[in-house]
Structures are given as structure tokens and as C-alpha cells.
Amino acid sequence: MEILGVDIGGSGLKGAVVDVLSGELRSTRLRIETPKPSTPERVAEAFTELVRSLGWTGPVGCGFPAIVRQGVAHSASNIDKSWMGRNIETLFSEATGQPVMALNDADAAGYAEMSFGKGKEQKGTVLLITIGSGIGTAMFVNGREVPNTEFGHLIMHNMIAEHYVSNSARKRLDLSWDKWGKRFNEYLIHLERLLSPDLFILGGGISKDYDSYSKYFKGATPVVPAKLLNNAGIVGAASYAYRYLQGEL
Ligand code: BGC
Questions:
Q1: pTM for this structure?
Q2: CB-CB contact of 228 with 117 (8 Å)
């Protein structure tokens, strides 16, 4: 069974056809720059271009960088503010003529890691943290998701955590791995105190540099880099759409 997965991020829209039973990509992976400004109409055009370039007809799963409830965006931290209250599913379904199912981007990455990656068969509380333009989180308890957790927006040092520890913050402040690793350790310890998780999984592009900063992690909870790296959002979005269509969610 194949479904198109699309991952919308602050800098790019990425998509590929996914075999939802194995989690493998079945087409080339396409990337289009996120339009600036990233208004609903302009993103819908880029989304349609991506779907058409892949020659896809059929269901589409879409990870979106905001709180998403029943297809509607309820926040807009790293995307144009005019998304607030917009129905992502209706907009993209009408633009492409294909059924689109949307969810939070970190939740999508979480579905992928829980089905095909480091969270597979993991019991207890698993927290996947995606580190990119923002900080996204996905929380699973005994394999079931608690959707739309926004632990990237906890307050640390009088600012929202993602301004302190995201990959954009690291680049903007030109932080060494040593400095950034220590900051991230503080963040993990904060989460540990609040949630007592059994496992942290770190996703986003920065997970490939895991060995450069993991030595600064001093908490008690095991931490692992994600297995699916940059494809987790695509695979998870497709996997979510499949499970939704199967009536499992
Ligand atoms: C948003 C989250 C999103 C994360 C990663 C945060 O700013 O609030 O909803 O998952 O960025 O894109």
C-alpha cells in the first residue's frame, strides 16, 4: 500500500511516495523551498506543484509545523501568522483534487519512529524531539500518542525553549557543539523532571551530528538519535494517513 507523504517545514516542503507497511520510500524525494511569505495560498501552490511533480493521485498525508486539530492550524510559530484558524486539509484537498490528511509535523515524525525506528515496541513514555527551525515534540505512552504536545514552548531563561535550543538558535548564535550540547542537556533535564520519560529520541537534521554533542547529556533517561533522520516526517505523514483511512485513529 502506497501513500504520498509530505513534510512542510519552515525552509522546505519535502515529499515522497511511501510504502506504508515497510516505511520505505517508493519514489524520489522531492524538495521545494517554502515560499516567502509562507501564506496559505502560496504554500498550497507549492504543495500542489510537489504532488503534480511526483505524478501522484490518491491519499496524501501532510505534516505541518503547528498545532493541528481536525485539520485546522491552531498556532503559527514558524510559519506565516495568517495560517491561524485555516483548515489545512480543505485548502490542500481543494488545491490538489486529492484527499489530504494533516497533522503536526513532530507527531508525524513520531509515528514514523514508533512504527519503523527507535521507538518500535518501546513501552512506557517515549518523547521524540525534532530539532530544526523550531523544537517539535511527540509523546507516546505505551505506543499510543498524546497529540499536539508543544514542549518546545516551555519557558527556560525567560524565553521559549525553542529560542534557546533549536538548530536555528545554534546557528544564529554560532554556538559550538560544546555550548549547544550543554544547553540541550539543560532542556532534557527540565523535560525529565516534568515527564519522567523512559526514552528520548532526537530527530531533525541535527540528529546526524549526534556524536558531536551527546557527551554533554547528563540526565538519567536514555537518549538516542532517530533512525529515519530526514525522512521521518514524510514517512510518518503517510503512515498517519494510512492508519486514519483504516479507521485506527
Ligand atoms: C511549533 C510546533 C512544531 C515545531 C517544529 C514549533 O514552533 O510550535 O507545532 O511541531 O515548531 O516544526
A1: 0.97
A2: yes
